[in-house]
Structure of MFS transporter:
Amino acid sequence: MKRRRTPVLACSVVGAAVVALDGTVLTVAQPALQRDLHADVGQVQWTSTGYLVAVASLLVFAGRLGDRHGHRRVFAAGALGFAAASAGIALAPGIGAVIALRVLQGVCGALLQPATLGMLRTAFPPDRLATPIAVRTAVIGLAAAAGPLVGGALVSAYGWRSVFLLSVPPTLALGLLALTTREPHPGRTEAPARATPGGTTSDRTAPGGTASAPGLAALDPLGALLLAVALGLLVHGLVEAARPGGAGPGALAVAGAVVAGTALARHERRAAHPLLPPELLRSVPVVAGTAALLAASAALFGTLFVATYFLQDVQRLDPLTCALRVLPLALLMVLGAPLCPPLQRRYGPRRTATAGAALLTLGVLLLSRLDATAGAFPVGGCSALLGAGFVTLMVTATSVVVHRAPGAHAGVAGGLQQTAMNVGPALGVATATLLLTLVPDGGFVPAQGAALPALAAIAALALPAALALPGGARGTRPEQAPPRPGRRPCVRS
């Protein structure tokens, strides 16, 4: 069993890192792509928006596919598809082909991302899961920090197409490795049906830990479609709202997302096999962990958006100097992630996550007090607080979400976690853009604008969510459901 964990950990960590690296290197490559393909700014923006909408709308359904058919298979399909789409983009003749292939890449990324957590959940026992999640988070932080440097070097030396070729070898290798790796099935040890605190029972589980409902109905295709429409419209609306003159279309898209979300809620209450299992949504640790991740990611990425304009437009720093000013954020994420599991074991998820949320909020608040003359030390200090707080909260909340989810719904839980991490940044950037436009003269100076105080308030919303997490040092273990009425409890030797 232990030997099987090594390839699973490699697939999970490297797969998540490749996706993170791909997103950051693209930002550097977009200007060269625009010039080479004679595209306008709106078309180039859709190379990012199309990918983001596809990923956010399909993450939960992809997690459900993993629960039903095995996370290893879904991961392999996503990795191989991601490699093929990346190679296609590198050979694309025009901007239209790039946009279409980026959407396809987003679909494959949606298959890949929840499976990286689902495979860890099936391969590692709950009391040892925090360490691989911390390793995964550290590598993601390292990839995100290295992305601009790697992308800039590749674009300067070989052109923008080399950026997309970068992800082909690792994803191809990971897909083949996943196909040759035998997936462990902890779900074999679960009872045929499990009672929930509300008195209902979950679906009967198959040997792989998946629900045994037959056919397409078990995947809840209508629920998946409604969720995809709701999340797709929400992300598109937030992205549109962040553009000049996009407030109207953005509001319409968000309104459409609300309508689709309402229809989804009504459908899920009546569905025999809902896409979002009731026992998962009734789990306070899962909901609280997801909410904390949503608030924290919105606050962090919105703050970075404001800080970038402050450093480059107000202080007139070049991009490299700007990146060095905020480098402590990436360093603290990489170095702090391995410290999170022992902190959880010593103090419990509640206190650990609350400390992380407090550090993140404090970092945004202190950054909001900087004026136009702020030097490298105060900016770096605030960045360090942001990095330390975010990584502590992210590792802890992710561990709780994955641990406390039933094994049969590990993929859906991973999809919810990844959805929060994709929707949060769009929400934070849209909030920052809206508030920056309200103070056109001094908005980019933190001490004179309203954006960073608002983002600090969003970061503070992670505090009550963190306080709702389990308090004990063993609080990340899966909840043990009470035995069904009339049945003797199962006692393991």
About this structure: The domain at 1-183 is CATH 1.20.1250.20 (Growth Hormone; Chain: A;).
